[in-house]
Amino acid sequence: MKTRAITGFFFVLVLVAATIFNAYVFAAFFSLLGVFSAREFFGICKTADTKPLMWIGTICAAVMALLASAVFLGQLQPLSLLLAVPLVSLLFISSLYLKREKPFHDIAYTVLGLWYGCVPFLFFIGLGFLDTTFNPNIPMGFLIMLWSNDTGAYLSGRALGKHKLFERISPNKTWEGFIGGVVLAILVSLLLNHYFVGLTQIQWISMALIIGIFGTLGDLVESMLKRSLGIKDSGQILPGHGGFLDRFDGLLIAAPLVFIVLTLF
Q1: Which of 52, 79, 199, 212 is geometrically suited to a Cys-Cys bond with 203, CB 3.0 to 4.6 A?
Q2: Partners of 174 in the beta sheet?
Q3: Residue of 255, 64, 58, 13 lying closest to 146 (CA atoms)
Q4: What is the C-alpha to C-alpha distance for residues 96 and 87, in angstroms, rounded to an integer?
Q5: CB of 43 closer than 8 Å to CB of 244
Q6: Over the stretch 125-176, which tens digit does the pLDDT of each residue have?
Q7: pTM attached to this predicted model
Q8: Which residues, listed in sequence order, are joined to residue 242 by a DSSP beta bridge?
Q9: Nearest one of 82, 90, 104, 37 to 60, comparing CA atoms
Q10: Could you give the CA distance from residue 237 to residue 11 in angstroms, rounded to a whole number?
């Protein structure tokens, strides 16, 4: 517990510093998290029958993150993102020369790793540039509400939890915890509306609802992934907390949806 608390404290400090320091540090830091998360996914999915294209997939993730960051920072035009298409084609072509027993299994898990592990972080980076200029309030608010949802779910689940939310996947999660997490996220969104500029009150509340609902579902999806692979943690990079996928499971599902909703409305 002590190790978990110390790791969590310093990890949060790093996340906050990287988010608010400046646009370039923000984009670079979360791009790296996307690349590391994709690589972590490739590693845990490696079996005797399936071997994701580790190095090619990691290079693809890095190039995708670089392109997206450059577009958000105004260094490239949005059409430059189309350069990512040949990268996916490279996965298929390279498999012709690797002589794997089940090449399409390898390709499928590599593409899934890019989509599940890397792409959500690119949407998260986009939250900092919704008005083209960098505004750290929105991604910082996202993280605060994500942490609030986790805290509210834990406290209310411990105090009131009786009805299982999804026992087959996560026996400890309850409906009471789920509701408590969403309620706390909404309450925090009202505070953010008062202190953070960039969104209207309705937008902050909508963001809280998406994070509360789909952040929890993201947690369950990552638990389903680990159960299907027979592992406890996705990695050991963060003592007491597991891997990057463990720490950002809620972001992986919620960030793209928040970006889409705030962009469209």
Answers
A1: 199
A2: 164
A3: 255
A4: 15
A5: no
A6: 999 999 889 999 999 999 999 999 999 999 999 888 888 988 889 888 999 9
A7: 0.93
A8: 238
A9: 90
A10: 11
